[in-house]
Amino acid sequence: MANLNVLSGVAAQGLVGKAQERFSDKGAGTIEASFAAVGSIVDRLHAGAACDVMILTGPLISRLASEGLLRAGSARALGTVKTGLAVKAGARKPDVSTAQAVEAAFTSARGIYFPDPVKATAGIHFMKVLAMLGIHEQVAPKLHAFPDGAAAMQALAAAEGEDLIGCTQVTEILYTPGVESAGNLPRKFELSTMYTAAVCSRSTNPEAAAAFVELLAGDAMRALREAGGIAPG
Asked: Which residues in the chain belong to E strands, given as ranges?
């Protein structure tokens, strides 16, 4: 029985949890998974962390493969994840269908929760959206950044008060109890990110790692991927 180490962006946390159950139920082995902002996961791999399976954005997987850190030909696309807006469960959902509506939602909010603006895909994009709207200085006192999207959504769920909003990838919104989706970013600000799984070159169980990648990307998990916010690429 294999014991696999999975390093993954937080966007895939829900999917990995479901796949882990199926993998273990089949007697294929156990999964030790670690989740963080994609930039932090890359840093961990470069620092020598144990890794059998890597799940990151497509461009990062390609870059790591070119560095020889991932097994050639092992990458499988999981699907695309959009970035959306969230509110506390049961709270009024603001209109976020247009750029003007998003600007109004941000400027009227009492607090805005989002992931790391340097290492998290959604956090980096969120800062670009604020720059495009020209409201960064105006909303700066309301900004609450967290290491990743899951932590941001957990903080939003626990926060007291009304008129709070969050921005992160939809998988992290759907995965977190206590928050609800208010809708995806409108087309002008849309971010659709391809996530990909691959076998790490330093894997001590490459065959089992490849089997887990196939489980994540295969037809058996299609419905769970889509339900969790990962759309076909």
From this structure: 2-9, 29-36, 53-57, 76-88, 111-115, 143-146, 164-169, 179-184, 192-199
CB 30 within 8 A of CB 209: no
Residue 1 has what pLDDT?
63
CATH numbers and ranges of domains, the chain: 2-79+195-227 (3.40.190.10), 81-189 (3.40.190.10)
Amino acid present at 100: Q
Distance of CA 165 to the CA centre of its chain: 18
pLDDT score, position 177: 97
Per-residue pLDDT tens over the stretch 87-133:
999 999 999 999 999 999 999 999 999 999 999 999 999 999 999 99
CA distance 150 to 169: 9
Tokens of 36: 């963080």
Q: How far is residue 11's CA from residue 32's CA, in Å, rounded to a whole number? A: 17
Q: Output Rg (C-alpha) for the chain, integer angstroms.
A: 18
Q: What is this structure's pTM?
A: 0.91
Structure tokens at 88: 């506390």
